[in-house]
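Final report, Chapter 2: Outcomes

The project's central promise was a pipeline that accepts a single protein chain and returns its three-dimensional structure in a standardized token representation, suitable for archiving and comparison. That pipeline is now operational. To close this chapter, we reproduce one record exactly as it appears in the project archive, with the input sequence first and the structure output second.
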Amino acid sequence: MKSKTFVQQQYPFERYDAVIKKTISFRRVSMEGDLERLHSWMQEEHVIPFWKLNISWEQYTAHLQKFLQDDHQTLLIGELDGVPMSYWESYWVSGDIIGNYYEFDEYDQGIHLLIGPREFLGKGLIYPLLMTILHKKFQVMETQKIVAEPDIRNEKMIHVFKKCGFQPVKEVELPDKTGLLMICERKGFERRWTDWQTNKF
């Protein structure tokens, strides 16, 4: 069996998106290079209600160190034309709490995300970013499903996930929120990916 850690962590990764005419890239989070940026993003009004990490510098430093050492997930910075503007947690369901809420397969993956700077909000940029990272994650051929569990109050994010191929499954009571378990299956995503590339999205 392939090393799951190996097959998922092929970063940095980039591709030019002809629809938005920008280069989308993902790179791993660097403690030294991204701590200040991420701590700042966690203080943004649009982030606080759903991430609840508007904590002190010392507390967030400890949080990020712990997450970077957790080998069931990969922390990423998403960039547009080289400008950092989003944060992503790409993980294996088999090592995550969400695995307690449905019957998962060994290679199921999951995703958490946020857009940091306010100037990138409301411009439809989350769609090409999410589509691109889903495309990347489905390059693991054993992966047939990718899950998300947005806060049930986060209607905008639920809409984004649906548009990118996720289907609602059920509400789940997680330690920090009531989430909506959503699943994106490979075949459904591949149809949407083709539509996106042909500008029919």
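Archive annotation: The first strand starts at residue 13 and ends at 17.
This record, like all others produced under the grant, will remain available to the consortium after the project formally closes.
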